[in-house]
Amino acid sequence: MQGKRIVLGVTGGIAAFKAAALCSKLTQSGARVRVVMTRSATEFVTPLTFQALSQHEVTTEVFDEPNPEVIAHIDLADHADLVVIAPATAHTIAKLAYGLADDMLSSLMLATRAEVLIAPAMNVHMYAHPTVQQNMATLKKRGYAFVEPGEGQLACGYVGKGRMAEPEEIMQAIATMFKRTRDLTGCRMLVTAGPTVEALDPVRFFSNRSSGKMGYAIAEQAAKRGADVVLVSGPTHLAPPADVTVVPVTSAEDMYREVRARFPDQDVVIKAAAVADYRPATYSEHKLKKQDGELTVKFARTPDILAELGRTKEGQLLVGFAAETNDVATHAQDKLKRKNLDLIVANDVSKPGVGFATDTNAVSIYNAGGLVTSLPVMSKAAIADALLDEVRDMLDG
Ligand code: PMT
């Protein structure tokens, strides 16, 4: 954490006293910590405590402007490598979800482009309340990371989930986030995304429900982490991710050609695209005319791109996806073996919030030895980062 600039947001809960220990651990580990407190937080712990621990003045109000040369909340927002809010009350979580900006912390949260880690702390029933859960889901979709509260005796007398994670656990989560910074520098990675479109005639086609969101999230996170990323994408409505070379394709045959040509130059290939297994066997140059009775369309197999890569790989790390609706683990592991993959990411697309066109996903990642990890419903960016952690560890190994 040496030299990392961390903004520690402290909000008004009894766990604010634990934030003092967190602040102390952060400064001891070499981080440059600036503490921003809400007014309610100052009811629990004085700003002087955090000033002494961080060796910097503590700000609370948006109009605290100690340096006339800069606007304080923008300056803090711009210079942060990470914002940690610990403890985060239900009120602060709601303000972040709705974009309110009535104090220093909430204002800088709108202005910052840094990564955010939130450690909620509240009463067990407040934590379980659907509104709080919904607000947290909104923030997770936006890419905020969370350290789950622990279970046990709460200050309010209840026993249950709501106690802020211990400072050591929050330090561990921060370390994991920093480990991701530029950890894929030098890695050449090809990612596929989106559906393929198989034309029947000039106006009709067969396709699937893939939006491209999963593959774009992988490409975006990999590029942020320093990888040199090529994204071979079927038709989507998504904006190209920053610092990624996008190669647009339409059909499975196009995707096969573009991926095959670039394969020898890659260290890693991640195939999140939903590639059609079949295309219409013949393409009519003219629009097919409506006729009485049924229409039978004959289909031909498309090339299995991933299986071909698996047959011809020369040290590249190959990651496939498996979109399943039943016997997910069996089907996914079978694909891993048949296509000679290093990892397969299985998603059960029959579940809500999982798979096609959602902003979230839930996956199980397998290697030849079996299950590596299972990830609950979270933003596709968070899934992408967790997958890239596995890829990085395999590359390091
Ligand atoms: O795009 P989103 O809306 O975000 O949705 C994400 C997703 C559900 C598309 C994604 O998470 C996912 O599961 N992608 C793979 C979908 C799929 O086609 O799975 P499959 O089980 O049919 O194929 C297995 C693997 O082989 C995939 O990596 C696929 O890219 C690859 N394949 C399949 C057929 C083929 N002809 N060539 C291939 O390379």
Write a brief caption for the model.
With 397 residues, the chain is α/β, with parallel strands linked by helices. It contains 14 helices and 19 strands. The chain is elongated, with a radius of gyration of 24 Å.
Explain what you see:
This protein is of the alpha/beta class and 397 residues long. The protein has 14 helices and 19 strands. It starts with a strand and ends with a helix. The relative contact order is 0.09. The model has no long low-confidence stretch (mean pLDDT 95). Ligand PMT binds next to helix 10, helix 12 and strand 16.
- State which percent range the strand residues make up: 15-25%
How would you characterize the largest beta sheet? 8 strands, mixed
Bound molecules: ligand PMT
Number of helices: 14
User: Spans of 5+ residues with little confidence (pLDDT < 50)?
Assistant: none
- SS-based structural class? alpha/beta
Number of strands: 19
Can you tell me the overall shape? Answer: elongated
Strand order of the largest sheet: 12-11-8-13-16-17-18-19
Query: End-to-end distance, in Å?
Result: 23 Å
Helix content: 25-40%
Produce the secondary structure layout.
Layout lengths: L4 E6 L5 H13 L3 E6 L3 H4 L2 H8 L17 H8 L2 E7 L1 H9 L5 H8 L3 E6 L3 H5 L1 H12 L3 E2 L3 E4 L5 E5 L3 H13 L8 E6 L4 E2 L5 E2 L6 H12 L3 E6 L10 E5 L3 H11 L5 E4 L6 E3 L18 E3 L3 H8 L4 E8 L3 H11 L4 E6 L11 E8 L2 E10 H17 L1
The chain binds ligand PMT.
